[in-house]
DNA sequence: ACTACTTACGTATGTCGTAAAGATT
DNA sequence: AATCTTTACGACATACGTAAGTAGT
């Protein structure tokens, strides 16, 4: 990046950008950018980290007041994480006009806060009473719409696929596909299991459930789909959430667990077995022999 | 409040304040303040709610960069919640010059973020992997320094004081003293027990542990002191936390549970009995007959 | 009539653009 | 030499203060 480039993007001249940076650096008493080539200093990178949430909140505040002044006309804009999309689609039965948009877990609260979306349906793992991440961006209504046991997707010929149910700890050393956008990131799996392991193998960066399951079937790894507790559904203070106080209970959660099998018409996905998983606590991990885990993976 | 008063506080004239408000209202397209008398409108109150965290982050960013530019000289400034204060005092043994300041759980992260404190020791209840509230204000080092079973303080002559240990559900209908600054707020107790109850009785707004226990002894209610898991100790990125990577393990937690009994020299507080409490899960509450709880309370 | 907020206007400060100078590759 | 940033200076916009105007109490 360069001052000239930034100026072009902002509609300013290079001089103005230079003056801004100089003024800010003088104000803070720290050099923020190294020039020629232009790159953030340590202090500059730090400041940048602060800037993003602040700007996000400013945008959220402006959007909130604008919505307060003039309620938005048009269809209800619903966003959902990949595994909650089916539940969101089910909402369309009640709501005639409805816009659906699939995004990241992290992006969803942002979009709702900035009034880019009216309602968000997100899945994920959460303790009974902890707040959803991103919920503190702006005052928003949050409610839990379902709870479901966790499931894992395995290749059909996986040694552990023969069992009806598994413990997460058994899979600590399996070959996982890290698909942070679709299922839980590996880091969270480690936290949930209270154990090390869950080595980083193939990463699936997309948000496509079908694609991920295809990768599992081919044998790139054993991947777990979310479950345990239904994702909260953050909504705007006025709007969607109020109009749908009681959506189908468990809607989001059913879709989440079903996305692997039932989401495509309840016929088993080719080459994929879906098994329920009990989330291991640290104690459970310590007392359970992890020998069998090593046999796993295609 | 009045425009004139605000102007006096800001060092401006009434006119300037009037112009600012008018410009902001024109920008947002909403009336923010009702005049004569001056009071926030609904939109104004909403905007105010957004303003506080934004201003806090701005202050935190400025403080962080200032600290980065010129590390603060002088003694280590440590803050602590009332029940973690004893552990903080124990730090003084290692650190020759040390400033100690007792505050609220909510205030502590703010003070650390704005570089008003170098290190914060706070107690409280938390699930194994959830982040501490206030920790997202600024990038700060957080670590858990102890874990301890929960305890409840009862009057000596309380019917339940005869038992060596109690379940939180048993106390759902007891007469509690709500001391949100010292122990867990009643709302959190409800969440932890997964049950209704915990009726609001006397409120103890202070931060004085001894005073609270005196109130318990006199019989104003049955009050629980914190426990379960040690409070995390948020520290600045550079400074205290790095210099004390391994504080006495369990320091904060020991002090927290001990604040009722051991904190005053390990002699039992006059008229107060301290009993350990198991935190009830929703399931435990449903299956446990709550009849006995009704007998409790002095 | 008194008090408090609003509006009008003059001044000061700040911001941006143009243009020239300086620095780096 | 070419490219990019900094500095200098003039034009414009913004912000504040003074003072007059207006609206509640």
> How far apart, in Å, are the first and last alpha carbons of chain A?
45 Å
Question: Which sequence of strands runs across the widest sheet of chain A?
Answer: 7-9-6-8
Q: Helix share of residues of chain A? A: 25-40%
Averaged pLDDT of chain A, please? 72
Let me know the number of strands of chain A.
Answer: 9
User: Could you tell me which chain pair has the largest interface and how many residues each side has?
Assistant: A-B, 33 and 33 residues
Number of distinct helices of chain A:
10
Spans of at least 5 consecutive residues with low confidence of chain A: 226-268, 281-298
Q: Which geometry of chain A do the CA atoms define?
A: globular
Q: What would you call the structural class of chain A? A: alpha/beta
The fraction of residues assigned to DSSP E strands of chain A is 5-15%
Provide an overview of this structure.
The structure is a homodimer of 298-residue chains. Chain A has 298 residues and is an alpha/beta fold. Chain A contains ten helices and nine strands. In chain A, strand 1 (33-34) and strand 2 (39-40) form a beta hairpin. In chain A, helix 1 packs across helix 2 (14-28) and helix 4 crosses helix 9. The interface between A and B is medium-sized, with 33 and 33 residues. The first copy, chain A, binds a DNA duplex (25 and 25 nucleotides) through helix 2. Chains A, B: Residues 228-238 have a biased composition (Gly residues). Chains A, B: This is LysR family transcriptional regulator.
């Amino acid at each position: 990046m360069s001052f000239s480039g930034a100026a072009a993007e902002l509609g300013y001249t290079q001089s103005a950008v230079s003056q801004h940076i100089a003024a800010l650096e003088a104000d803070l008493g720290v050099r923020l950018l190294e020039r020629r080539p232009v790159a953030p200093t340590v202090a500059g990178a730090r400041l940048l980290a602060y800037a993003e949430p602040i700007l996000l909140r400013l945008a959220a505040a402006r959007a909130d007041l604008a919505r307060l002044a003039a309620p938005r006309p048009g269809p209800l804009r619903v966003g959902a994480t990949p595994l909650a999309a089916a539940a969101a689609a089910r909402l369309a039965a009640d709501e005639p006009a409805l816009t659906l948009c699939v995004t990241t877990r992290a992006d969803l609260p942002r979009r709702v806060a900035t009034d880019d979306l009216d309602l968000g349906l997100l899945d994920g793992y959460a303790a009974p009473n902890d707040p959803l991440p991103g919920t503190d961006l702006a005052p928003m209504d949050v409610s839990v719409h379902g709870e479901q046991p966790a499931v894992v997707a395995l290749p059909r010929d996986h040694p552990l696929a023969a069992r009806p149910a598994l413990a997460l700890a058994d899979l600590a050393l399996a070959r996982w596909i890290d698909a942070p956008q679709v299922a839980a990131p590996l880091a969270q799996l480690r936290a949930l299991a209270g154990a090390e392991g869950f080595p980083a193998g193939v990463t699936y960066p997309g948000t496509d459930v079908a694609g991920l399951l295809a990768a599992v079937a081919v044998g790139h790894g054993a991947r777990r789909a979310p479950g345990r507790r239904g994702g909260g559904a953050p909504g705007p203070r006025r709007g969607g959430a109020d109009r749908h106080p009681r959506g189908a209970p468990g809607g989001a959660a059913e879709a989440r667990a079903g996305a692997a099998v039932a989401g495509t018409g309840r016929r088993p996905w080719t080459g994929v077995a879906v098994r329920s998983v009990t989330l291991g606590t640290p104690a459970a991990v310590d007392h359970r022999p992890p020998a069998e885990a090593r046999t796993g993976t295609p």
